[in-house]
Amino acid sequence: MAYLGSAVSNTLVNSLHTSPAGLVWHPARSSRSPANHQEPQAARLSAVLCSAVASCWTGRKGRRSVNFRVRRTVTAERTARREELMQPKTATSKKWHWKESITVHYAKAASKIPGTDTAVVLLHGFGVASFHYEAQFGPLSEAGYTVYAADNVGAGLSWPDFDPAPGTPEEICSPGTEWGFGKPRPPFEEMVIGEQLWVEQVKDFIAECVEESNVIIGGNSLGGYLTVLATATMNTRLLGRIKGVFLLNATPFWGWIPNRSKNPDLHDAFPWKGQFPVPESVRPLTLAWYNTLRNPDSIEWLLNFVTSNPAGVGHELAERIATMADHPAGAAAFAQILFTPQADLTFEEALDEVVKCNIPVFLLYGREDPWIIPYWAARAYTTAPDADYVQLSPSGHCPHYETPAAVNESLLRWLQDKVPVDGQGPRQDLPGSIGASFTVKESDGREVVVTRRGFAEPFRENELAWDEFPAWLQQMARG
């Protein structure tokens, strides 16, 4: 998401350290896919410039008083307010004790149709939590699906039960108020809050908490990335329950420290890989960034940047994001997330594994996303050429939040076609022909056009990266 301040930086460095093979359009197995297509420079440049703008703006906001101490005031009122903000208003909050040392918060909305046995598991992006899917719990559960959304460890209300590395130095904070900067204790010596832990969390959550036999899994931004990684690495028994995967403007890369198996020399060049405690050498950068990105003004600017309708963002979302990291382990978790190494599988490799398992894939992408521009949706489509692919416009990086009615309508049409809860589908279908569309009216009166995309039409997604670049630069300038 655009308010994923650290994700933007990860994108930049990942761009610079990608192997040459990663800079080439990977042709799909289908002969319909454009072969040997070079990745447009605009796609990478968009990530680079976006990172630069975010970094410069962060510096501008923090220039008056650079403070490497964690600025956090803990009161009973603030804690109660945080608990309130983190819980979705449209679902029931529950807790799951994981790894004997972590309490995971998740939300559940039970199916409103008795006797159904299908679950939808929603994975959130970086910087938010399960509350970001408030608009999906009701419509999906009313249609007969039981809906789950868990907070990733280090987000929302999912945190270690105790200080993973007690003894935080006083120069970082007031004594006893921050966790993770002292001496690590079991079981946190090798644990890193980041993508590999989150992938493990997703798989264990489905195995231990999702009761339904049939599971559809999907996510936005980082959540989409975790969706394909978790599905691609599931054991046979768990994989047999997965009946569909959907991606909402999925982040196609994460992390900037190279994977050990793919680039061992460069991986080993980084002395710290995110384990507790956070070393002194990275504290100034991570703590200053952590303090700045929790600033409500910073958050609102980033939210306005990635949405096609800034007026619809609202102050509550900014307050929720600012409040989310207000936990004793927040600063240490933020530092770990920044420095976690890349996963063994890239996004495209993982998506390819999902395709090989014959799991239906649905791509729902907001067209006006300034970061995951249409090029990235097209690239995912070349990896999964049999996927259903729709484009929503106007809609930005988080279409499920910005244009929930359009996303819910599109998703339900796909679900009721691929995984009908009563086994009697399809009831509805997406537009049948490539280029066909339908219009959905949001609660505020805005109309969103949902268009089916694919290879049967003149394939211009690759060129769209260039076509839309001037408008993207203008949007950057306005920000």
Automatic annotation (TrEMBL):
<dbReference type="GO" id="GO:0015996">
    <property type="term" value="P:chlorophyll catabolic process"/>
</dbReference>
<dbReference type="Pfam" id="PF12697">
    <property type="entry name" value="Abhydrolase_6"/>
</dbReference>
<dbReference type="GO" id="GO:0009507">
    <property type="term" value="C:chloroplast"/>
</dbReference>
<dbReference type="GO" id="GO:0080124">
    <property type="term" value="F:pheophytinase activity"/>
</dbReference>
<protein>
    <submittedName>
        <fullName>Pheophytinase, chloroplastic</fullName>
    </submittedName>
</protein>
<dbReference type="InterPro" id="IPR000073">
    <property type="entry name" value="AB_hydrolase_1"/>
</dbReference>
<dbReference type="InterPro" id="IPR044211">
    <property type="entry name" value="PPH_chloroplastic"/>
</dbReference>
<dbReference type="InterPro" id="IPR029058">
    <property type="entry name" value="AB_hydrolase_fold"/>
</dbReference>
